[in-house]
Amino acid sequence: MNIRELPKEFTKFGDTFRQEGYNPATEMYLYSRTLEADPSVIYYEVFKRKIGNEYKQPDKKCVRYPGNEDFGKWAKCCRDREKAKQYYDNGV
Length: 92
Fold this sequence. Notes:
Blueprint: E1 3-4, E2 9-12, E3 15-23, E4 28-34, E5 42-48, E6 51-53, E7 61-63, E8 75-78, H1 81-90
Parallel strand pairs: 1-7
Antiparallel strand pairs: 2-3, 3-4, 4-5, 5-8, 6-7
């Protein structure tokens, strides 16, 4: 099965998201999020690899980036990189 992977870098809401890594042992992704309004502010988003259907092509599969409703369940958002790294290394 062909699965579309997440982009290494993308922009959403004007903010820049960059993949810092993927840990195959925990199946966790780590992305940094730099705010457009203040580039000195960086958040870290850590989340479990989840496969879902493509939005516009439901017969195709892709790795899902978490939505707002997923944070606190299978995704975490941290200002502290070390805290994010703990989730990355150990899972959410």
